[in-house]
Structures are given as structure tokens and as C-alpha cells.
Specification:
Distance between the termini: 17 Å
Radius of gyration: 14 Å
Number of domains: 1
CATH class: Alpha Beta
Pfam family, one: Macro
Shape: globular
Protein name: O-acetyl-ADP-ribose deacetylase (Regulator of RNase III), contains Macro domain
InterPro entries: Macro_dom, Macro_dom-like
Structural class: alpha/beta
Order of helices and strands: EEHHEEHEHEH
Helix content: 25-40%
CATH topology: Leucine Aminopeptidase, subunit E, domain 1
Number of helices: 5
Strand content: 15-25%
Bound molecules: adenosine-5'-diphosphate
Organism: Streptomyces qinglanensis
Length: 169
């Protein structure tokens, strides 16, 4: 069965899926963009669990390309899967790390038994990854690794992101 990938233009915090992916930073303590929106709307339970994860498993932070799940607090979703995207570099090819974010997030969701998952466009905000290249990497990885999910959704914020992902799909 091919992976069922859907694209929507919207806000990641408003998705009726079991797991939503957070474009986090390695501190897991919150930030701007997707991260800020998830913590604002999900409430303090999420950061409390992140703090425990830092204390117990990730003393020096969640590594780039890795993913870890917490409660989703007050969001509609059941879980937030935090992943740390690579910062874009013109000198060094970090594509494998961006692919790893998608792969590891799917793995974490699968371990929880989630059947539906929504991703933002990881690394394309503050981390400056060019949208068309990020779209290709995300779609290729989700298509190859998303087997078994009822739905793998990409949530694009704004028309330009949506159009770029649509063209890549
Ligand atoms: P990163 O640090 O990985 O670049 P950002 O959160 O800065 O992560 O941005 C990732 C992408 O998510 C950008 O394309 C940004 O426009 C988009 N974005 C920002 N807020 C939201 C939101 N609430 N829902 C979905 N996408 C969002």
C-alpha cells in the first residue's frame, strides 16, 4: 500500500490527527514558529514533560535529526513528536538530517500506535531551508517510510509553502 500523503494549508495546532510533529530546537524548552504555537495552545503540560526528558534522557539536548514524543496537552492530538531540524547550510549537505527528522518522527508515532500524523515544513522557517528542496526531501522520505499510517499530512502555513509542496508532490 502506498503512503496516503495529504497536503493542507493551515495551522499545525488545529489538526485532528493523533500525532503532530513539532519543529523544535534541541533545548526542548520552546521557541518561535511552530514550537511557540504548539506550546501556547497545548499548555504547560508539554513543557513539563520536555523538562523531564531533558533531565532524564537528553542532558545536552535532543540531537538534530532525532525525535521524541510527549503528551499534546490541550491540543486535539494525543501526542506531540518533537524533532530538531538542521539549520540550512550552503556549504554542507545536511539533507540526511532533514530526512532523519521525518523518519524518526514516523518511528516515534508508530511506537505509540498512532495511525494519523501531521508534519509542518521542518527547517523552512527560522532554520532557512529553501522550501522547494525541503519539500522534495520531506515528500520522498514520508512516501518511502510512511507505510502503515492511515494518513500522513503535511500542514503548510501560507500560500507559498502550500504551492511549493503541491508542485513537488
Ligand atoms: P524551523 O526552526 O525548523 O525552521 P519554524 O517553526 O521556524 O521551524 O518554521 C517551520 C515552518 O513552519 C515554516 O515554513 C513556518 O512558516 C511554518 N509555521 C509557522 N507556524 C506554523 C503553524 N502554526 N502551523 C504550521 N506551520 C507553521
Amino acid at each position: 500500500m502506498p503512503t496516503h500523503i495529504t497536503l493542507v494549508q493551515g495551522d499545525i495546532t488545529e489538526q485532528d490527527v493523533e500525532a503532530v510533529v513539532n519543529a523544535a530546537n534541541s533545548s526542548l524548552m520552546g521557541g518561535g514558529g511552530v514550537d511557540g504555537a504548539i506550546h501556547r495552545k497545548g499548555g504547560p503540560e508539554i513543557v513539563a514533560e520536555c523538562r523531564r526528558l531533558r533531565a532524564e534522557r537528553y542532558g545536552s539536548g535532543l540531537p538534530t535529526g532525532a525525535a521524541v514524543a510527549t503528551t499534546a496537552g490541550r491540543l486535539t492530538a494525543r501526542w506531540v513528536i518533537h524533532t530538531v531540524g538542521p539549520v540550512w547550510s550552503g556549504q554542507e549537505d545536511r539533507s540526511e538530517l532533514l530526512a532523519s527528522c521525518h523518519r524518526e518522527s514516523l518511528r516515534a508515532a508508530r511506537e505509540l500506535g498512532a495511525r494519523t500524523i501531521a508534519f509542518p515544513a521542518i527547517s523552512t522557517g527560522v532554520y532557512r531551508w529553501p522550501l522547494d528542496d525541503a519539500a522534495r526531501i520531506a515528500l520522498r522520505t514520508l512516501r518511502a517510510e510512511g507505510e502503515g499510517f492511515a494518513e500522513v499530512r503535511l500542514v503548510l502555513f501560507g500560500q507559498r509553502s502550500y504551492d511549493t509542496f503541491r508542485a513537488a508532490l
